[in-house]
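Notebook, student rotation project (T.W.).
Task set for the rotation: take a protein with a known small-molecule partner, predict the structure of the complex, and write up what can be learned from the model alone. Partner molecule chosen: S-adenosylmethionine. Sequence and SMILES entered below by T.W., checked by me.
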Amino acid sequence: MLSGTIGHDLLANKRVLEVGSGPGLGGFVASKWAKSVVLTDYQDLVLDLMESNINKYNHHVATCEMFAAKVDWNDVQKDNYYTNIELIAEDGTVAGKLSDQQLDVVIGTDVVYWPTQVEPLMNTLDMFVAQNTGLPIYICYIERHVNTHNLLKQSLTDHNFTFSEFGQEITKTINADSYMYKITK
Ligand SMILES: C[S@@+](CC[C@H](N)C(=O)[O-])C[C@H]1O[C@@H](n2cnc3c(N)ncnc32)[C@H](O)[C@@H]1O
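Predicted structure of the complex:
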């Protein structure tokens, strides 16, 4: 979805952070349009892979800076968590703190799949919105189980997020159970 006109409309010249990036495919697609992209995940093995991928595959290096950062949804409520998140450059060195950068957009693909992780993910989105007023969040996923899908909507409501589905003309051609939400507070 992000590689087409929707990506351009949502991400052109924006500072983007991806939650639960894994190897970083969503963030790499975003780098086609964005001014900067921060890939995040919580496992050291995944972070190593991310850094290596940034080093090898940032084909838009002239227009988009890319960083990796460790963000564990289960830890975000710890004291001073946000101000301690480090940005790792493509050469593996620390390039500064995330809190020194304004974020314009948060994205997440396939991060709604395990019921116990929905609430920690909500806390994480809350943290990013608290630090970046008016921040829009775009979450895209294929429903794996109706319970998790419903839990997401309930949790968004409980956390006072406003959300709406969009892009159905694309998501539903991929899969009838595919969703993209715009989430704001
Ligand atoms: C199904 S994968 C999706 C990866 C990638 N976004 C994609 O679409 O290919 C879910 C990702 O969420 C990450 N994740 C799960 N729990 C997490 C947590 N507590 N904190 C941060 N990331 C987490 C996993 O490490 C994994 O990379």
